[in-house]
Design goal:
- The protein is 37% helix and 22% strand.
- It has 193 residues and is an alpha/beta fold.
- The protein has a single domain, classed as Rossmann fold.
- Strands 3-2-1-4-5-7-6 form a seven-stranded mixed β-sheet, sandwiched between helices.
- It is globular, with a radius of gyration of 16 Å.
- The chain starts with a helix and ends with a strand.
- The structure holds S-adenosylmethionine (SAM).
- The site of S-adenosylmethionine has 18 residues, from α3 and β2.
Length: 193
């Protein structure tokens, strides 16, 4: 487990936003309990969550997309350190430029918060019949619940878009969504029967 700690330390030192501890544990339990085998992740950063998901079981594979070159290169190094090159397919691209034919049991959205509705609409086409879409950061450090005035215009914009995403999930005709106040706020969306 030392090497996982090293990734966490690197992320902290270099201000790389990786999943919070409670959030990742929740995600890993979900994968284990639901026998998830094929994962698509939007937002790899340095490969931390992709590696952790693969380590749940030997037969899990992850396709993960990252648009930042420095993070992508760091992820490549980390994936190699864990000998997971054959199970993690990392794509260096903006997720909106990626066309995938494959279907996945779990699609994990953990990228630009202002684009969540667009990620959801694009990648739901890659979901297996009984698959789920999990989204992280819905609380945005508690800011999506705050009644206080948010000073930064940029942050206000992200909070508004995340709240739009939450409403989009609540009103969705095709998917049912459960919301969890775990980590930075997680949702799990399943296709209605
Ligand atoms: C929160 S971090 C991902 C953390 C990672 N899932 C983990 O927990 O280890 C979000 C990442 O998404 C990437 N990203 C944001 N928008 C993207 C897009 N449209 N396409 C690909 N990557 C994107 C960012 O560069 C950033 O590294």
């Amino acid at each position: 487990m030392v090497r996982i700690l090293e990734l966490e330390e690197y992320a902290k030192k270099n201000n790389i936003p990786i999943m919070e501890h409670d959030g990742i544990e929740f995600l890993l339990s979900f994968i284990k309990d639901n026998n998830v085998k094929r994962v698509l992740e939007i937002g790899s950063a340095i490969g931390y969550s992709a590696i952790r998901m693969c380590l749940v079981n030997d037969d899990i594979t992850v396709t993960t997309i990252e648009r930042d070159e420095i993070r992508y290169k760091e992820a490549i190094k980390n994936i190699k350190k864990f000998n997971l090159e054959s199970r993690i397919n990392i794509i260096f691209s903006d997720a909106f430029d990626v066309l995938l034919d494959d279907k996945y049991d779990l699609i994990f959205i953990d990228a630009a918060k202002s684009q969540y509705i667009k990620f959801f609409e694009k990648f739901k086409l890659n979901l297996n019949k009984n698959g789920v879409i999990i989204s992280d950061n819905l609380n945005f450090h508690g800011l999506t619940h705050t009644k206080d005035e948010i000073k930064s215009r940029n942050v206000r914009g992200i909070v508004r878009k995340l709240n739009n995403y939450i409403d989009f999930l609540k009103d969705n005709k095709e998917f049912d969504t459960a919301f969890y106040d775990i980590g930075d706020g997680i949702s799990i969306s399943k296709r209605k029967n």
